[in-house]
Every structure is written in structure tokens, then in C-alpha cells.
Amino acid sequence: MRVRNLQIAVVSIAIALGWSISSTGASEPHSLAITFIGWTNNLGASAEAQAKFDKVNGPRINLPIGDWAILAITNHGSQFLRFDSIVAEYELSEGRWIEVKPKQWPGLHGGAWMPGTGSISYLLCPREVPRTAQWRVRYLCDVDRHPERSPLDKMRFEVVAPAMMLTPVLPPADSNTSSALQPSK
């Protein structure tokens, strides 16, 4: 009887360890999905519409002018997530990736990303990335244990299970909408 109980315990531990390792797989440590939709270079309203908005709501922060990737971001997991871009990378013709730390770049950020939700987001192609190169963003993703707290509350950003992740490869910024929607190699 004791041998059988020991065998059952060993098998149970092995199954639990296997599940634990597979559920934290390196290919997708967090269930945040980012999909490229297309490009835009016009995030603002017309000057007339902007003036009306500013009159009612006060002046807004002007968004940088440039090429913006349109992304669909979804959290298909069961925990709140947060993420912040670290660096941008672009690909040389021989397949090597060059890292750049852009200046004056809004990057890609999100906090209190609710489970089972998604949204359209915009990502500015940094000036340091050649317009003819494919590029991607390396970002840090983590569980957001305190989504109810203010972003200014230092306790909100408790480190839980941070993972470095990559956006999908984004097509060159000089590509038109029809080629931008084609899958990359």
C-alpha cells in the first residue's frame, strides 16, 4: 500500500511540474496578442474640428506627425496585464536586427489591460528606423495585480512575472496599405 501511495505521489508531482512548465512556456509567457492592421499618417482632426474641441475641452497634447502603425491588441488571458516598450529594432537586408532607443517616441504602453478585452492602438514608427525596413518593438509585459490603483501609485507596479516580448514584424513604413496588410516573410 505504501509503495502504491508513493508511486501516486511521484506521478502527481511529475504531472504538476509538467503542467507548470508548459503553462509558462517561453513562446507566449503572457496572453497579450498584438496584430498589425495597417498604416495611417493622420491621427488628428481637421484644424477646424480641433479648434472646436480645444474651445470646449482645452488644448490637447499634439501627437507627433509621422507614420503610425495601427495595431489590434487583445488580452485573451484571465489576468489584468500591463506592458511598456523598451526598444525598437529594424531588420537589415541580410536578416540582422539593429536595436535603436528612439528619442521623443511615445512607444507602446498599456496598463490595467482587462482580461478578455481588446482595443485598437497606434504605434509611431520611430525616426531612427529606416522607412524601407521591417521593424518590431521589444516590450516588457507583466501581470497588473492592482489595476484599480492610480498609475501614479508606486505600489501598483509590483513585479509579478515580467516577460520580454516582441511585437509581430511590422512592414516598412513606406509601404502602402495594400502591401502592408500582406503577411511578412
Explain this structure to me?
With 185 residues, the protein is α+β, with helices and mostly antiparallel strands. It has a single domain, classed as Immunoglobulin-like (Sandwich), CATH 2.60.40. The chain is 20% helix and 31% strand. It has 3 helices and 8 strands; from the N terminus they run αβαβββββββα. A hairpin with a 5-residue loop joins β3 (81-91) and β4 (97-100). The chain starts with a helix and ends in a 5-residue tail after the last helix.
Topology (elements, then pairings):
Blueprint: H1 2-23, E1 32-40, H2 47-57, E2 68-75, E3 81-91, E4 97-100, E5 109-113, E6 117-124, E7 135-143, E8 163-166, H3 177-180
Antiparallel strand pairs: 1-2, 2-6, 3-4, 3-5, 3-7, 7-8
Structure summarized in a few sentences:
With 185 residues, the chain is of the alpha+beta class.
Tally of domains: 1
Which radius of gyration do the C-alpha atoms yield?
21 Å
Number of strands: 8
Proportion of residues in β-strands: 25-35%
Poorly predicted segments: 1-27, 177-185
Mean pLDDT across every amino acid position: 76
- The helix/strand series, from N terminus to C terminus, equals HEHEEEEEEEH
Through-space gap between termini: 58 Å
The coarse silhouette is globular
Instruction: Outline the biggest β-sheet.
Output: 5 strands, antiparallel
Architecture per CATH nomenclature, i.e. the level-2 architecture: Sandwich
Helicity range of the residues? Answer: 10-25%
